[in-house]
């Protein structure tokens, strides 16, 4: 399955080819909250070979020594995150044209969750980084 997404103004477009088993999660960490302006961020992690920017030039912000967050400089939309080692690209589900095709399966950084924000689900909750790698 190929999915497309992009920023609010349309200047940046990307495509991903997710496969069964790609981790999708809700992240409750402070950095994700600040980067998105939301109480939680929903992500899918894909191998870099299955992600490509198809239009525009995203801008990077190094949010930590190991990660860059990419966004549209024109409208400010956050789009995806890359790791320094090049193992994964984390795409914000809200930036997909059809986010309903990807369903998170766990919660990461639940120890940092805002107490008033609680999804009533039975998915695994990890107090820190979820235990997956691509």
Q: Can you describe this structure in just a few lines?
A:
By secondary structure, the chain is mainly beta. The protein contains one helix and ten strands. A hairpin with a 6-residue loop joins strand 7 and strand 8.
How would you characterize the overall build of this protein?
The structure is a single chain. The protein is mainly beta and 134 residues long. It has a domain at 22-112: Beta Complex (Metal Binding Protein, Guanine Nucleotide Exchange Factor, Chain A), CATH 2.170.150.70. It is 5% helix and 35% strand. It has one helix and ten strands. The protein has one helix at 30-36, and strands at 3-6, 13-16, 24-27, 41-46, 51-55, 59-64, 67-71, 78-83, 89-92, 106-108. The strands form two sheets. A seven-stranded mixed β-sheet has the order 6-7-8-9-4-3-10. Strands 1-2-5 form a three-stranded antiparallel β-sheet, with no helix packed on it. Strand 8 (78-83) and strand 9 (89-92) form a beta hairpin. The two termini are 18 Å apart. The mean pLDDT is 95.
Q: Outline, from the CA principal axes?
A: globular
Query: Biggest sheet: strands, sense, closure?
Result: 7 strands, mixed
End-to-end separation in angstroms reads: 18 Å
The number of helical elements comes to 1
Examine the coordinates and then state which fold CATH places here, giving the name of the CATH topology of the domain at 22-112: Metal Binding Protein, Guanine Nucleotide Exchange Factor, Chain A
Decide which structural class fits the backbone. mainly beta
Strand order of the largest sheet: 6-7-8-9-4-3-10
CATH class of the domain at 22-112: Mainly Beta
Mean pLDDT: 95
Share in β-strands:
35-45%
CATH architecture of the domain at 22-112: Beta Complex
Rg calculated over all Cα atoms: 14 Å
**Which stretches are poorly predicted, pLDDT < 50 over at least 5 residues?**
none
Count of beta strands:
10
Summarize the helix and strand pattern as letters. EEEHEEEEEEE
